[in-house]
Structure formats: C-alpha cells, structure tokens
Fold this sequence. Notes:
Blueprint: H1 3-20, E1 26-32, H2 35-45, E2 50-58, E3 71-74, E4 84-92, H3 96-106, E5 112-120, E6 138-139
Parallel strand pairs: 1-2, 1-4, 4-5, 5-6
Antiparallel strand pairs: 2-3
Amino acid sequence: MxxxxxxxxxxxxxxxxxxxxxxxxxxxxxxLKGGSFFMCELAKRITVPVSLDFMSxxxxxxxxxxxxxxxxxxxxxxSLKDKDVIVVEDIVDSGRTLSYLLExxxxxxxxxxxxxxxxxxxxxxVIDVHVRNFVRRREIPEPTGRFGxxxxxx
Length: 154
C-alpha cells in the first residue's frame, strides 16, 4: 500500500467511527507498539470527542509468530467503566493476544467494546476474533521471506 492509500483508509475509518459514535465520546485503546502510529492518525480524523489510553500486550516472545503465551507488559491508566471503547491494532494476526485482551477488557465494564484494525492476516488466525472494521480492512498475504516482528511490508 502506498502512503496515500494508507492515509485514505485511515480517513475512511475515522469518518465511519465519527458517524457510528455521533453524540458520544470514544475511548481509543492502543495496543503498543505497532498500533501507536495508526491510532494517532486515526484520532486526528475522528470528529467526536476522543480520549486515548495505551497498553502493551505480547504473545510473540522473540519470534515473529504468536506463542500463545500472553503477557501484559503495560496496563491501562484509566478505567473503562461505562465508556465506548475501541481497541486499535495495526495488524490482527493469530487472534490469540486479541482474544485474551478483549475478554479481559470486557470484564472491566465498558458500555461498548469494538476492535478496529488497519490490516488483517486471516490465514494466520488460530482463534476467531470479531474484527469490527469500520471500512473494509486490507488483508495482507503471508510474507515469503523472513521479516522482523510486525515489519512485514504494507
């Protein structure tokens, strides 16, 4: 994807979130580190009030494939109670980490909880997670060469 294509996709997602949450405030939760640039660009394009929080969850270890062992590296700073929460992730891969994360966040009492991703790797999905894409997501093929963790070409 070109930079212009990425920018257009983020704009479309921001417009759809703004429409879906008209009259409300959304609380974006970024899954660090990969989702940080996407969330910042997305937040700029959302026209309803937005608050941000960050968490770091890992199931990769030292490999590029999810290990299935989920570790919370950094938890949220704010309560999710009664908030409309959108978890922002750059790439959905095996689904293990996000499945665990979404269940944990659901237990914290948000008014609503959705997942938004820029890119998707459905062929690597091990656990089905409901990816609520505000516009059609971009599926990316499995790379043929070895790349660093989450550094596959867009």
